[in-house]
């Protein structure tokens, strides 16, 4: 007996919305994320922050600890969350595997899958930092935490990495000449060997702002802000750079190439521009912060690569969600926030249009379907429906 075409069509439409088994977790959806620091006494509660992030359509968030109030607030939000083992715990994690298991059992396992923990950072800017006693423990801590993830069968679902500052490089200009500092290679090489084995990217904190304030007389601020400028040409590769952000990423790629890690992806763990700072921090202003973050956002949403790696889209976490009024250090450290404590935006960078404002409701739906990990299944079924509908 022939099955009526309308019945077949109805079945296909239902199939379009059935996932094909468990969905793989993506550590970074799209190209844009944000750092959520909390060294402040005037910022909203984590629950309010989640509401803000959802309104702003920010889907990737990185924090600097594993605070349980934050992990609870992110339950059911659908936001990808990277948590952290701070520097003060690195030696503890390196000492023995049982400590790393305890940490994972307390801060990761109880929150999955409701809280989408997709990454763990081990330390922040350890190599090249002032506390050299952390250098070797960092390598051991990373390995112990990964062993713990394997025991919990989470190694394929949670990305493990450590962000580096520009201090790990001996030079970064021109980009092609960048290499790691020789004195760090005893620690950097085993770290990169391990990350290459488990498929982790190389994360760098890239701040054109910091480069500019270090030499404002010789660095064109337009080059640092993504504004029209003549740019630079790398004499070794003849590649042209019209912004410092891309040059800093390609410098990291050059250092990885020189060290023998051509296949490792570079991602940006932090980047931003301060809206205020000390008297000697040239360029720290609301207008420059707005310009940098607005142009950076546009650049990331193009989903394009760099001059050296044009087919590898850049991914970056912006620093930061809020100004942190209790953060120590230079004045600029307390003025990177995109949002004010009451949730209003500090300056207009088009946050309300993180998805293009001209996008139709159907295109927004497609983006959500793609984020769910079953876009191919969806479109294959839709095409089958069309074939049945138009067939003889």
UniProtKB/TrEMBL annotation:
Keywords: Glycosidase, Hydrolase, Membrane, Signal, Transmembrane, Transmembrane helix. Its EC number is 3.2.1.39. It catalyses: Hydrolysis of (1->3)-beta-D-glucosidic linkages in (1->3)-beta-D-glucans. Residues 1-27 form the signal peptide. InterPro entries: GH (IPR017853), Glyco_hydro_17 (IPR000490), Glyco_hydro_17_plant (IPR044965). GO terms for molecular function: glucan endo-1,3-beta-D-glucosidase activity. It comes from the Eukaryota. GO terms for biological process: carbohydrate metabolic process. The keyword Membrane applies. PANTHER family: GLUCAN ENDO-1,3-BETA-GLUCOSIDASE BG1-RELATED-RELATED. Belongs to the glycosyl hydrolase 17 family. This is glucan endo-1,3-beta-D-glucosidase. It comes from Sorghum bicolor.
């Amino acid at each position: 007996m022939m099955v009526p075409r309308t019945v077949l069509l109805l079945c296909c439409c239902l199939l379009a919305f059935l996932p094909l088994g468990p969905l793989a977790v993506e550590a970074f959806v799209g190209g844009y994320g944000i750092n959520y620091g909390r060294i402040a006494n005037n910022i909203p509660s984590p629950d309010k922050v989640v509401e803000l992030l959802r309104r702003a359509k920010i889907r990737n968030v990185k924090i600097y600890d594993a605070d349980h109030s934050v992990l609870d607030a992110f339950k059911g939000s659908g936001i990808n969350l990277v948590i952290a083992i701070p520097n003060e715990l690195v030696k503890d994690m390196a000492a023995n595997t049982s400590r790393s298991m305890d940490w994972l059992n307390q801060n990761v396992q109880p929150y999955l899958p409701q809280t989408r923990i997709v990454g763990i950072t081990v330390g922040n800017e350890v190599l090249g930092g002032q506390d050299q006693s952390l250098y070797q423990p960092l390598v051991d801590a990373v390995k112990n935490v990964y062993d713990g993830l394997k025991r919990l069968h989470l190694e394929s679902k949670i990305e493990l990495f450590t962000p580096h500052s520009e201090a790990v490089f001996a030079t970064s200009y021109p980009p092609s000449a960048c290499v790691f500092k020789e004195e760090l290679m005893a620690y950097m090489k085993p770290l990169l060997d391990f990350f290459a084995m488990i498929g982790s990217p190389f994360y760098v904190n890239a701040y054109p702002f910091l480069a500019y304030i270090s030499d404002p007389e010789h660095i064109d601020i337009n080059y640092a802000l993504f504004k029209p400028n003549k740019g630079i040409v790398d004499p070794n590769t003849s590649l042209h750079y019209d912004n410092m952000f891309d040059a800093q990423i390609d410098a990291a790629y050059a250092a990885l190439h020189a060290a023998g890690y051509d296949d490792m992806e570079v991602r940006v763990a932090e980047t931003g521009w301060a809206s205020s700072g000390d008297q000697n921090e040239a360029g720290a202003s609301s207008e420059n912060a707005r310009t940098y973050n607005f142009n950076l956002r546009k650049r990331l949403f193009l989903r394009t690569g760099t001059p050296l790696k044009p087919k590898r889209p850049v991914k970056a976490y912006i620093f930061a969600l809020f100004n942190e009024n209790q953060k120590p250090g230079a004045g600029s450290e307390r003025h990177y926030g995109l949002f004010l404590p009451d949730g209003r935006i500090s300056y207009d960078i088009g946050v309300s249009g993180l998805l293009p404002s001209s996008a139709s409701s159907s295109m927004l739906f497609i983006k959500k379907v793609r984020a769910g990990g079953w876009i191919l299944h969806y479109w294959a079924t839709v095409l089958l429906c069309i074939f049945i509908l138009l067939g003889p």
